[in-house]
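Researcher: Can you fold this with guanosine-5'-monophosphate in place?
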Amino acid sequence: MKNRISDPRGITPVAALVRGGTSFLICGHVRPDPDCIGSQLALARGLSRLGKRSELWLADPVPENCRFLPGSERIRTPSADGRAFDAAFVLDTPRPERLGVIADLVRGMPVTVNVDHHPSNTRWAAHNVVDPHAGATAELIHALLAELGVSTDRDIAVCLYAGLLTDTGRFCYSNTTPGIHRMAAELIEAGVKPEKIAENIYASARIQKIRLLARVLATLERDGALAWIRLTQAMYRESGASPEDAEGFVNYARDLEGIRVALLFEEGADGGSTRVSMRSRDARINVDRIAGRYGGGGHGAAAGAVVPGRMEDVERRVLDDVRNALGGA
Ligand code: 5GP
Ligand code: MN
């Protein structure tokens, strides 16, 4: 009982697991973002400082804007599990299916540790450090490293800062708490140069990305408090850009004045599915819940789903659904 009061996130037993083991696996979700990768790398470095070994797995390649993170070259996609680990950490991943092609390998591990801040997290692992009030998974890794007595060196600080910066929308979203700013201050004291991280993540765009953005912005439509944009496979071909270049495009629709919900529809490579990115600026409209109806998820203010069906059909259904939500809120 004492533990539950003094350790509401359940970090103490996970720290004990780390102290008792020697070899760990650290995984994250498909389409990994800086919070996922930064959290993985910070944890790996912390474990290494304690004399522990770790391996880092992801189903998808490390996106270009995360390759500056120290240690990112260690991340790989395994084809088979040839090793035994004392525990498998899974970070920023609300459901095991979000692990993508590595899901079965990871689920087969004897001890799993789920560290996440998504409200829809199903607490699916043997150990669950799940706190929807955390602004980023990086905040939970920071707390775990503190519990383990690992001081924040510069490399750990850089990795954690990348997670805080991006998951709070550059310290703009409502998850930007005093605690987040205190942690950011500590990371800057540990050697983070905010301008360098911002440059790597936000200001290293390839020209192909800008060409893609121009095409996507030309599709912008607005209906009252709802705005949406479209991205087709032809636009990828014409611009020479790739899907990771489209990261964040939905925010251009989100940032229009008077908008409460913004959507990006992206045609799947096979033409038979459509990715929908959703953003809400109205606390009464929870896009995690709307995306959940299409088999996706995320957070109340930012969510996504891959919906079977051609883009025009998916667009019609989702727009209807969101218009209803807007009408009822
Ligand atoms: P984005 O729109 O930037 O791709 O994703 C925004 C948020 O929604 C992220 O927290 C991401 O994890 C979540 N998300 C995006 N796509 C999916 C999806 O297909 N399934 C689930 N469960 N979550 C998603
Ligand atoms: Mn996150």
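Model: Folded with guanosine-5'-monophosphate in place. The mean pLDDT is 96.
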